[in-house]
Amino acid sequence: PEPGAGSDISRIRCKADDQGDHVSLNASKTFISNGILADLVTVAARTSADNRHGMSLFVVERGMEGFERGDNLAKMGLKSQDTAELFFSDVRVPRENLLGEQDRGFYHLMHGLAEERLLAAVGFQANAEAAYAVTADYIGDRKLFGKSLAEFQNTRFKMAEMRTELDVAQVFVDQCVTVHNAGKLSSDDAAKAKLFTSEVEARVTDECVQLHGGNGYMDEYAVSRYYTAARVSRIYAGTSEIMKEIIARSLGLDPRSK
After folding, report:
1. The model scores a pTM over 0.85
2. Is 116 one of the catalytic residues?
3. Beta strands of the chain (E only): which ranges?
């Protein structure tokens, strides 16, 4: 994304100025995963002033003059994944580095979004399952008032609630994978999977921290890291609010059509 654009890809301001045998890129990008480590970066840039969707994709290579990387950004979670700001100042990109078709970059990006959101949903589900697993072990070992934490009714009810949510989410994710493998996954079903699993992940990891008590707040316990990793899930690959917009439009509830 770019500063000020966020989930709205159509607001990208990065321009690729036509210089004949190359284009010149001027822009900054933020929150770029693998931005420090990547040798090749795919950059979306405007190539048509007459169409708000008129953009193209260009491959920028490490070492190109004018291409700079900012610091590895400090984050709440996902600390093992580098995230950086990228800066492009009159970067000369050869014409042969055009990825896909000229002025079709927006549609190329849209084509891959359903798969990206499904992949995200799989990751969210896995993180929630991991938090649940370590919590199941913890409540069996933790003693309180002369009995294990697992013996308390509240604990058993919370675990039952989480198991139900996780199983329901898994069934839908599995169905989406099957449909996607057949090449038929719709953008609204991908949005539903991304929205639901990210919300389930948030609830499950939060409840698992609660069941750990004070230990859950300590980074030496894995559940603490599962919790902080989960917070960004409702933001990247399209915020929960954007997912709801996509789903609402599939229901014919787009105010722009009235």
Report:
1. yes
2. yes
3. 15-18, 22-33, 40-46, 55-61, 67-72, 83-94, 98-99, 143-144, 147-148
